[in-house]
Amino acid sequence: MDVVEFVECSIGRWRSQRSGHNLAFSHFEEVRSTIDIVSLPKTAPEVIELCKSSEVDIAQAVSPFQMSWQGESDWDNDEVIEGSCVLVPIPDLDNLKKGKLLRSQGYAETIAAVGEYQITEDGTFVLHTEYDRAAAEEKIWFGTPNLRFRVSLIKTSDGNGVLTASFSSEIRSLSMEEKS
Amino acid sequence: MDVVEFVECSIGRWRSQRSGHNLAFSHFEEVRSTIDIVSLPKTAPEVIELCKSSEVDIAQAVSPFQMSWQGESDWDNDEVIEGSCVLVPIPDLDNLKKGKLLRSQGYAETIAAVGEYQITEDGTFVLHTEYDRAAAEEKIWFGTPNLRFRVSLIKTSDGNGVLTASFSSEIRSLSMEEKS
């Protein structure tokens, strides 16, 4: 599987169950959310803008997409967690399975970020992103075409300590009702 | 990483946080447990017995170990979840990264099982086990030498449907107090 196929398989509406583990305090967090992943054309203004601000030639971009989410955590039932961001894969010249992933400023994040992705032999999308004071590692893979899993780790910026780990089960919403 | 190194890195006492996702009903389960993994000699009676009952030559076995666990679920605080089983890797003749994993009848399981394991290029131990009416897929990997992650899927026996998914964060217990 390469990044074009991976994005294609990810397009749609997903119902997500996410468990967060705070490793120092052994706390659990439970989040239920709806995630929408939609394909964007390379001519979309937000894609052009993100490439420009990242100093990347738009010709290198493949399969841009937008991800938005809306959910509720058991830590704070009154607060709705929501956000949206634009993602643009920039594969290496000779290899669609490896490259950079540009990510726009989301509602929840304060800065745009550039991650490094790699798709392993068993079809797992592995993404490393470094921020100023932390680093993130995500693994995303498909259990079936309609079931996606995601493990996200937030690490200290030196990459040695893991602060939180979370696991999401994402089921494709197939009913018309849920798509409305 | 091959299976000998993987077992070596796993030996010890681990404090585990596990989240279970029931995918049909979007239910969460939270389990806290302590897991002990100890190395066994190839001369241990339970290792010899497991190889014999599985009709495997003990000479093919590498790094046998015992895993035992004790924990509590938020689904039933009064019940202590505990069990123990013996595991014996039987690598392919030319490849320590691939082979079978024999597993004794545990306290919780009703039958012994033989799984197929493979260690991927990024050091993830992937195990497939088929039972009479279900199949299990586990991925286990190290975030750091003292932090192990495990994703377990319970599938329908045809391997197409996923019934439950769970995620464990396992932190090595280093203090003497916790080892007592």
Automatic annotation (TrEMBL), chains A, B:
GO terms for biological process, alphabetical: protein-tetrapyrrole linkage
One Gene Ontology molecular-function label: lyase activity
Keyword terms: Lyase
Signal peptide bounds: none
Keyword Lyase among record annotations: yes
Enzyme Commission number(s): 4.-.-.-
Pfam families cross-referenced by the UniProt entry: CpeS
UniProt keyword Lyase, yes or no: yes
Enzyme category, top tier: lyase
Similarity-based family: Belongs to the CpcS/CpeS biliprotein lyase family.
Name of protein: Chromophore lyase CpcS/CpeS
